[in-house]
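User: Hi! I have a protein structure encoded as tokens and I'd like to know what sequence might fold into it. I'm fairly new to this, so please keep things simple.
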């Protein structure tokens, strides 16, 4: 199994307690092309259309996912906000272990 598939399966496992729509939004952000900062540069309406969800339901669900710590806002272009997965979603370690000074 390649590394990308393995990461997607791990993400599916980590999102097991979420609703189907919440998981769909997280997985969509995980699979959609992103810029160098990890931001998915696509509007909510465009993403909603990709998965057959109304823009209103998509935005509400995305807000829930943000509040749960799975997505974060990265930048704005005029009135459009862009988001990326957080370390909670990517499974990256966010705590740097302290070492004793010598």
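Assistant: Happy to help. Inverse folding works backwards from shape to sequence: for each of the 102 positions I chose a residue that suits the local structure. Here it is:
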């Amino acid at each position: 199994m390649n590394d990308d598939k393995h990461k997607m399966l791990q993400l599916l496992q980590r999102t097991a307690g979420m609703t189907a729509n919440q998981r769909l939004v997280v997985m969509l952000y995980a699979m959609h092309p992103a810029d160098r900062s990890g931001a998915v540069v696509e509007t909510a309406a465009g993403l909603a259309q990709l998965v057959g969800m109304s823009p209103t339901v998509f935005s509400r669900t995305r807000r829930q996912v943000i509040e749960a710590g799975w997505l974060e806002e990265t930048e704005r272009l005029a009135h459009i906000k862009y988001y990326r997965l957080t370390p909670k979603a990517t499974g990256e370690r966010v705590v740097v272990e302290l070492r004793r000074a010598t």
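A useful reference point when you look it over: The mean pLDDT is 88. Feel free to ask if any position seems puzzling.
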